């Protein structure tokens, strides 16, 4: 039994789940792991989150945001027990009906599920965010967009320091001009692998929420981009268009301004993801993320057609290479060979 397993068991022994069966449920791009606990006899379940502090994990933001989301009527997992020192959480099990799995089994539900997820954002944006969240502003977003240069372009062997510097100014200016105000909570990973369908609940509570611990304040288009320009599954263009129109219709947002914000945030987000996916391969040895890069690239090219991004688009077209099969192979060959930049 490892030290981490012993610590987890000690934590569970302090709860009424001490004798439950424990099975690994999932891991993610972070260092967190999830285990499902099942009580013998009743079949009742809960989830153990294992978030090791010595690997940079901190469960306190999850607790804060889960409590906030539940408090405004949204379906974040309830917190049953917590060990902040050792990084363990015992939380409500919202089941296995991830949007991605449900839609794979029944594509006819696509419109209704995405409408429910969009309505959940409307409800969230109708409430003031927690007062102590950091702001995902133009300066922060510009730095995050530059991960595409730092890891994707660098990994492809085409690093360009002057282009990076020029691009940072261009994307920062576009974001500063088109993505104000930063007045709502953004979950920043709001997509089909982090949403659960809970049809026995009512209204927006039918959408189960996961992986929101990195929440910040930001523009209300951000999570809609995350939902509709999914890095892991193809969302039909018709669904993307209808959900943008639905959000604008329900909230009364200015269509022209909202579209500009959506495209600027989309470009920023997809550039960040290009960098993160390349880093997960090059630094962390997770080569599977490279296979997702072409989809992200496609989203980026769509966003860059907006006039607000014309200067940045010109710089990127010369500085970032297209993810050809040869380039993707090159990234995989370098898997786990770049500990830091």
Describe the structure.
By secondary structure, the protein is an alpha+beta fold. The protein folds into two domains: 3-92, Phosphorylase Kinase, domain 1, CATH 3.30.200; 99-333, Aminoglycoside phosphotransferase (APH), C-terminal lobe (Aminoglycoside 3'-phosphotransferase, Chain: A, domain 2). The chain has 13 helices and nine strands. It has helices at residues 3-13, 60-71, 99-105, 110-125, 138-145, 147-155, 161-178, 222-228, 237-251, 255-282, 293-303, 310-319, 325-333; strands at 21-27, 33-38, 45-50, 79-83, 88-92, 184-186, 195-197, 207-209, 216-218. A five-stranded antiparallel beta sheet has the order 1-2-3-5-4, sandwiched between helices. A hairpin with a 5-residue loop joins strand 1 and strand 2 (33-38). Helix 5 packs antiparallel against helix 7 and helix 6 (147-155) crosses helix 10. The radius of gyration is 21 Å and the shape is globular. The two termini are 36 Å apart. The mean pLDDT is 96.
Write a concise keyword list for the protein shown above.
341 residues; alpha+beta; Phosphorylase Kinase, domain 1; Aminoglycoside 3'-phosphotransferase, Chain: A, domain 2; 2 domains; five-stranded antiparallel β-sheet; two-stranded antiparallel sheet; 13 helices
């Amino acid at each position: 039994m490892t030290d981490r397993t012993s610590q987890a068991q000690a934590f569970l022994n302090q709860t009424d789940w001490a004798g439950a069966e424990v099975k690994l449920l999932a891991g993610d791009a972070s260092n967190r792991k999830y285990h499902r606990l099942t009580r013998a006899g009743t079949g009742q379940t809960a989830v153990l989150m294992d978030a090791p502090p010595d690997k940079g994990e901190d469960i306190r933001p999850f607790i804060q945001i889960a409590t906030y989301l539940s408090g405004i009527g949204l379906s974040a997992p309830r917190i049953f027990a917590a060990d902040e020192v050792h990084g363990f959480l015992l939380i409500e099990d919202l089941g296995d009906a991830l949007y991605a799995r449900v839609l794979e089994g029944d594509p006819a539900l696509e419109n209704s599920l995405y409408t429910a997820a969009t309505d959940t954002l409307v409800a969230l944006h109708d409430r003031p965010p927690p007062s102590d969240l950091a702001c995902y502003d133009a300066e922060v977003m510009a730095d995050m967009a530059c991960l595409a240069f730092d890891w994707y372009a660098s990994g492809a062997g085409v690093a360009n320091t002057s282009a990076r510097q020029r691009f940072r100014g261009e994307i920062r200016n576009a974001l500063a001009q088109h993505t104000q105000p930063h007045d709502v909570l953004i979950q920043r990973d709001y997509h089909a692998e982090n949403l659960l369908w809970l049809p026995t609940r009512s209204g927006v509570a039918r959408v189960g929420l996961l992986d929101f611990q990195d929440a910040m304040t930001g523009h209300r288009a951000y999570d809609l981009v995350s939902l509709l320009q999914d890095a892991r599954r193809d969302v039909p263009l018709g669904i993307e268009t209808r959900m943008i129109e639905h959000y604008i219709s329900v909230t009364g947002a200015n269509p022209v301004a909202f579209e500009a914000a959506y495209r600027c945030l989309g470009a920023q987000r997809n550039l960040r993801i290009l960098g993160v996916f390349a880093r997960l391969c090059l630094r962390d040895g997770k080569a599977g993320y490279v296979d997702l890069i072409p989809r992200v690239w496609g989203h980026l090219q769509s966003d860059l057609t907006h006039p607000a991004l014309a200067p940045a688009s010109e710089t990127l077209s010369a500085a970032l290479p297209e993810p050809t099969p040869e380039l993707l192979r090159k990234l995989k060959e370098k898997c786990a060979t770049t500990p830091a930049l």
